[in-house]
Design goal:
478 residues; 2 domains; 14 helices; 20 strands; Aminopeptidase; six-stranded mixed β-sheet; 33% helix; Leucine Aminopeptidase, subunit E, domain 1; alpha/beta; nine-stranded mixed β-sheet
Length: 478
Amino acid sequence: MLVQINSIDTVGDKIDRIILIDNIDTLTNNNISDNELQFIKEADVKKSKLFHFNNFDFQTFVCFIKKDAVSHIVKEEFRKQGASILGQLNSFKLENVIIEDYSSSNYGLYFAEGIALTAYKFDKYKTDKEEDKTLSNIFLFNKDISPADIDLMNISIEATYWGRNLLNEPQSTLDAQTITQEFKLMSEIAGFKLEVFNLSKIESLKMGGLLAVNQGSVIPPSFSILEWKPENAINKKPYIFVGKGVVYDTGGVNIKTGDFMTNMHMDMGGAAAASSALYAVAKAQLPVHVVAIIPATDNRPGQNAYTPGDIITMHSGKTVEVLNTDAEGRLILADALSYAKNYNPEMVIDLATLTGAAARAIGKYGVVAMKNEEANINLLNESSNNVYERLVEFPMWDEYDEMIKSDVADLKNLGGAEGGAITAGKFLQHFVDYPWVHLDIAGPAMLSANDSYRTKGGSGVGTRLLFDFIQNIAKKKN
């Protein structure tokens, strides 16, 4: 269930509440009883960050948040503390709770965000769903946090839920065609324009990468364009998100072995992030022209599947020698990046669960980023810290180009055993002529266990990052 955050101006007595403080002197017997206040003062707050008082008719939680850190780390501490308390709230079957934020940083909204993101569940296919009451509403008491900020946070959380749902949906119900129906529903709710290219249109555009990967499938590919272009847009040239939409990746003829095929219905994490972020931008009616481009297909070793040794002519006209059919994501992204040139974009950001090399390099705690010289990522870095989806920039040195040169075509779709995340990025660079950033989200996109407010399964990484980035642009230009 989506948890809603609301604003309140006053707080009553004998209610379920969470009190946020970073200084014990902030607490008075106006907030809690004399006995509770005395208990906290005698406790070691360095060892215990959370105090719980069960008053039978109502519950009181007092949470200490450290403040001796840079702001984005403090925000993350608030989120994680919020995530950690949800289980206790649900154990008392609380449907509503008040957060009283008396911290000096005024970051109670991030505490609420942590609770709301942790509350996500993907249980639509369970026949024995839990019927217990769970949290539905958070009421935030902090006069320094505006209703507009709360509205934006609710949209961000809702969009993240959308992204997670897309990731967690099995390929049996979410394929390259049915995903476009999800985009249609999103467009109807948020008010953005949607255009979907069918097979004949994709063929007419000579998108050789997308068509090659799709050859082994019985389901045609799709190429979706989601566009939010408000009349009051502050940018003349659009920002574009390109999301890899491989709805299931078997590896193709180079089939994945062992458990490497596990969770490959989530190989469309880039598509989930790009579409849900644009949904958020449109629903928030931000004055920024944004486009999301999503090529979608599955990758299977079917009767007519593409094979190692094939030479593909891409949408751009460049030719690519296929060395490995499991390096398919870069092929469909390359066609989309090439198509993006038609928009003369301000900047293009692609997102993809592209390489195991990226996941092995930095794990689940960050996003591998690469860019060309034209791209300025200062604002994107600000946003990455703000939402704690941190970027680790990898080099794009010219020497890596030597690893993807082909003897029989312009490029080959796989480099050597080393630098795999970088050579994948270098491959994509050959299809852009505009400011461009590549985000490899392979590490944090799919989680085998809960990581605080990042839930098991599809984490929704990238959605909050891109939404915050566009908000950042709107603020800076205003």
